[in-house]
C-alpha cells in the first residue's frame, strides 16, 4: 500500500495509518517530529535496547525520544533510517461547533435562572 503515495520532489508521504501497521520485529517504523523512519535494522543496535523501540513501533515516538534527551549523535543517526514525511491532516476549524457550544451555554443559563425564580 505504500507504493501509491503522492510524492513531492521525491519526498514520500505516509499517513498515520500507513505507519501504524509497521509495528513488529523486522518491520518497525517510527514517527519523530513528523518524519517517518524505518528502524527495523536498528533495533538490535539501539543503546537503549530494542524493547523501548518496539513499544513505539508504528507510532509517534517524538515525546519519548525527546524525554530521553538523545545526543546530537543520536539525532544524526536518525537520518540513515529516514523514509519520508508524515502526511499531517490538520484539524479543520468548525465555527459551528463553537456556536453550538454558546447556544447550549445560553440555554443552560436561562433554564437555571428560570428554575431559581420559580423555586
Ligand atoms: C530511531 C530512533 C532512535 C535513535 C537513532 C536512538 C539512538 C540512541 C543513541 C545513539 C543512544 C545513546 C545515547 C545518546 O547518544 O543519546 C540512545 C540511548 C537511549 N535511547 Fe534511543 N534512539 C532512538 C529512539 C529511542 C526511543 C523512541 C526511545 C524511547 C522510547 C529511546 C530510548 C533510549 C534510552 C532509554 C536510552 C538510554 C540508554 C542508556 O543510557 O542506558 N530511544 N538512543
According to DSSP, the number of beta strands is 7
**Could you describe the largest sheet, including whether it forms a barrel?**
7 strands, mixed
What structural category arises from helix and sheet content?
alpha/beta
Helix content estimate: 40-55%
* Low-pLDDT windows of residues: 1-5
Q: What would you call the shape?
A: elongated
What number is the mean pLDDT? 88
Q: What integer value in Å does the Rg equal?
A: 23 Å
Q: What is the H/E string?
A: EEHEEEHEHHEH
What do we call the CATH topology of the domain at 13-86? Answer: Flavocytochrome B2, Chain A, domain 1
Bound molecules: protoporphyrin IX containing FE
> What is the name of the CATH architecture of the domain at 13-86?
Roll
CATH H-tier superfamily of the domain at 13-86: Cytochrome b5-like heme/steroid binding domain
Strand content: 15-25%
The CATH first-level class of the domain at 13-86 comes to Alpha Beta
Distance from N terminus to C terminus (CA atoms, Å) equals 64 Å
Number of helices: 5
Which secondary structure elements does this structure contain, and how are they paired or packed?
Blueprint: E1 7-8, E2 11-14, H1 16-20, E3 23-24, E4 27-32, E5 35-38, H2 50-56, E6 59-60, H3 62-68, H4 72-78, E7 82-86, H5 95-118
Parallel strand pairs: 2-7, 4-6
Antiparallel strand pairs: 1-2, 3-4, 4-5, 5-7
The protein binds protoporphyrin IX containing FE.
Residues 30, 37, 39, 42, 46-48, 52-53, 56, 61, 64-65, 68, 70-71, 73-74, 77-78, 81 line the site of protoporphyrin IX containing FE.
Family: Belongs to the cytochrome b5 family.
Protein name: Cytochrome b5 type B
InterPro entries: Cyt_B5-like_heme/steroid-bd, Cyt_B5-like_heme/steroid_sf, Cyt_B5_heme-BS, Cytochrome_b5
